[in-house]
């Protein structure tokens, strides 16, 4: 085993998303016996179950070894779920080669082509499949003698042409030309009427097909679905996700202006299905697809042309099927998809199914958010049964070793707001404190709960007990001390306030040099006097004092300014939504400690290898860039670092040009060879030029006596003449 193969396997064991390593192993497997290769390809398609490229490689490997039974089993596993053009073409080619000897071969191929265009006929790249289908049908005409059978065949061909011309696919002009030729050939009498009738719709589809090609151009359809639990190229992943969402949004806008709402739905769901091939680990796509189906229920009812049963099948039943696919495959460990599914089933009144979904998720060892799902499960039981059933479920949840303190907070507040019993909530908080007393967030929630009960003495006792223990390190207790001080400012006297302030200062003096602590004496003083987002100094003074918890210093206007600046940068280069822009702006404001420059006036940096003069933007105090014409010339010249001299003194060269006299009557220079005047260099090109390369017709010849042209080297010619004279 080579070192490269071993490294690739080691890398995949660490990061299964390493596509380069998988490609190395694919090449290695193709050189191994089929038994070993099959084990590897099973591992490959298990890791990337929606990648048509990898399934095709697996099938071709089995075909190479004539394992036709295995090939058909593989097609059964992947063909209906993977909307891959290449995979379907591989299937059609397999049928042509392996089934051509059967009597019902034509029937098999027609059924296969029908399935293909039903599955992938909406794809913008499906031109070749449509064309193959049409050519296959037209080839049957040669074997049909009965006129009625021919007419039936022509109707089938016409139907497929019309189906193809309804879809905005690439190279649709070619199909239109073939259709016009077909109608002219088989029905010259009515051909013009049929073509004119279809022409108007074709022009609209042709226009939309160009838009669709533009929308789908950024999509990388060969990219397999990458598991987000492992490292990925985040920028490329986000770029592809946004490109798929733009494509789906474009389909939702019904650019074809279809009157049939079900046809629009079919195109939108097809777009979602295509996105799942590459973005299957993104839960938002699954949720958006299900919501789209559910929301179409009212639109279909308004049409009044479909029965309630049909509407239910194409909306809610389809959404259930989609959710089931998600939670049984890529979203198996995803809490968001499970919770959305439970809400949908609860809205339909299917409570038993909701319980099954919760239990199935919580039974998994790798569930990503078990505490959150337990909380929503308890809320559901309280809504649909009673508080007693919710308490029993809470008891079950406490036995789960994966839970954290949020479960106790949620149940304590649930008991308090539902039963109005303060003691039950206190008991739950007290029970959780035995396990999570080291969590500052949990103890803060406990304190706030007690504060709302208006039991001042109990709150003070709780503060003293928390701050007197070593469960929470001093450098993590700042928020608790702040709450204690805030509490005393609200309900205590000045002596109590100063007492707490003195204790707090003493604690933080002992950790002032702790690198994990950002608390200073100034920040403690500011925390004492602030109220909500009102601070005792302006933002500049707070920054100079090193105060970091400055709330409200970045108001709406500053955020709007930052968003405007970012919009100026992204508008021409990157497609980005307002929500993403706001997130970027908030992050910029959060990171900034100093005044932010007006970046709208800046020019985006574009890295260039071997940068040429004039390609950089002008900088204040520097040189101006070249004029456009000169810049274009400089770009065509070799980079300066490729030239090492001698360097020409430009001023001297120009001066020489200016001083030189230009002869008006130019006479060409002649030299004499063998007494004949010949223009300079003319003798070198006067004879026929014979290429040193072999002629195409003589490419395989080994004859070394092929004549060569005269040497173009004057020095060699002179040496040759001297030898002759001697």
TrEMBL record:
<dbReference type="InterPro" id="IPR003107">
    <property type="entry name" value="HAT"/>
</dbReference>
<keyword id="KW-0539">Nucleus</keyword>
<dbReference type="Pfam" id="PF05843">
    <property type="entry name" value="Suf"/>
</dbReference>
<dbReference type="InterPro" id="IPR008847">
    <property type="entry name" value="Suf"/>
</dbReference>
<protein>
    <recommendedName>
        <fullName>Suppressor of forked domain-containing protein</fullName>
    </recommendedName>
</protein>
<keyword id="KW-0677">Repeat</keyword>
<dbReference type="InterPro" id="IPR011990">
    <property type="entry name" value="TPR-like_helical_dom_sf"/>
</dbReference>
<dbReference type="InterPro" id="IPR045243">
    <property type="entry name" value="Rna14-like"/>
</dbReference>
<dbReference type="GO" id="GO:0003729">
    <property type="term" value="F:mRNA binding"/>
</dbReference>
<dbReference type="GO" id="GO:0005634">
    <property type="term" value="C:nucleus"/>
</dbReference>
<dbReference type="GO" id="GO:0031124">
    <property type="term" value="P:mRNA 3'-end processing"/>
</dbReference>
<feature type="domain" description="Suppressor of forked">
    <location>
        <begin position="5"/>
        <end position="542"/>
    </location>
</feature>
